[in-house]
Amino acid sequence: MRGRKNGCPTNIRDWQISILDKGWTAQERWVRIRGLRVMSKTCDSETADGSAATDLWEEPYVTKRSAVLKLSGKTIANAATGEKDEGQVMLDAYAAACGCAGDATIKFVDPYGHAMAADFVVTGAGQEANDTACDVSWELKQVGEAETLPYVAVSAVSVSPETLNMQVGSAPVQVNVGFAPENASNRRFRVSVTGRQYVQVSDVTENGFAVTALMQGTATVTVTSLNGQKTAQLTVNVGA
Fold first, then answer.
1. Which of 84, 187, 191, 213 lies in disulfide reach of 238, CB 3.0 to 4.6 Å?
2. What domains does the chain contain, in order, with CATH numbers?
């Protein structure tokens, strides 16, 4: 997260960016903002105190510069319900609130699990259609000091269920992937299949994946965490 040139875009397809739900529910929680692809951050060229800090995340607080963050990507919606992604909805709500009511806390986790959080006022939201999709963007102004969050290593990974009994032609089954501890910094994983002729894995997200039965037989699906190389296995028995 450090060393980015002022205003240069960053590809964030492999990042996890979340917004803090500060009480819309009984308990505060981080809500993942899906569909984001590019992030850029700019600071005003002049400082209030003449200092020359190099960390763009800290600079707005230390030098009183005006820092603006832009997040952009594609509209994400649930295929079954048509509902817009919850994280994008929250960003839109903060943008509509304006002023101090639009003060949101955003957490950034890079592909290696390094995380930081900062407060931003969501000053605007935009939408633009192109030939293949609908692009969305949000502009945020940093209003507080960035906080580097502690790195929490993965101690174990799990799948639920651990055994599946399926039939050829049956509907895909969703398998959930869990991490211990729950606040592990790097929750990325890879999936491998022994017996690909029997099952297919698809729709892999940070929360799990779907399994489809192809032909009669037994397959083993292995989930391996990218942090610590922890593994968990799912056995899939496919009947005719």
1. 213
2. 10-149 (4.10.410), 156-239 (2.60.40.1080)
